[in-house]
Amino acid sequence: EVQLVESGGGLVQPGGSLRLSCAASGFTFISFSMNWVRQAPGKGLEWLSYITTGGSKIYYADSVKGRFTISRDNAKNSVYLQMSSLRAEDTAVYYCARVRGSDLYHSYMDFWGKGTTVTVSS
Amino acid sequence: QSVLTQPPSMSAAPGQKVTISCSGSSSNIGNNYVSWYQQLPGTAPKLLIYENNKRPSGIPDRFSGSKSGTSATLGITGLQTGDEADFYCGTWDSSLSAFVFGTGTKVTVL
After folding, report:
1. What is the pLDDT of residue A102?
2. Band (A21; pLDDT cuts 50, 70, 90)
3. SS3 assignment for A60-111
4. Which end of chain A has the least Cβ crowding within 10 Å, N or C?
5. Which residues of chain B are within 8 Å of residue A110 when distances are taken between CB atoms?
């Protein structure tokens, strides 16, 4: 059974940092690209970042570029999101999702974790 | 602010049909493939449709997807109370080099 479990969320002060983790199981992790997506309270979905299987290609949403860094450790079946210079507007539930599709133009997310909550507040 | 526009809400009686639109541009829907996601209250999103009109295993054929030009559509027939959820379209945007989601549509079963 495919499972994605996010962790690392919590309360952080504005300007602070946090590292989210997503542990994958039930599939061959090294064969799949991964996304991070977030959802602010009462708002819609916002894609944040994408990383290819080996980490050679990475993309970010403009809203987090320069502040967030995606990475992965295929030996640990995990993908990470290092977040810095956090702002109140980064408060959200953060999901990791497995990416399918032959290329970016066909890409979609077929499995999602349950999410981890990040609250940025003083 | 999303580049894909959906109606904020739609409603219909049980057994009826709803059609949710997703409007974009040539840099996203017009040249790339669309997926649709259902988010039941308090849960993570779930894939409903991929590559414009394909259903993953386990998704009933009451759900269908189509695309024409720079717009996509999700259809739900035989509406059930369990279908009450938020629905999002999504696709890659070649100009932004980013995946983009629609603004989301809340479906209510009357």
Report:
1. 85
2. very high
3. ECCCCCCCEEEEEECCCCEEEEEECCCCHHHCEEEEEEEEECCCHHHCEEEE
4. N
5. 47, 50, 56
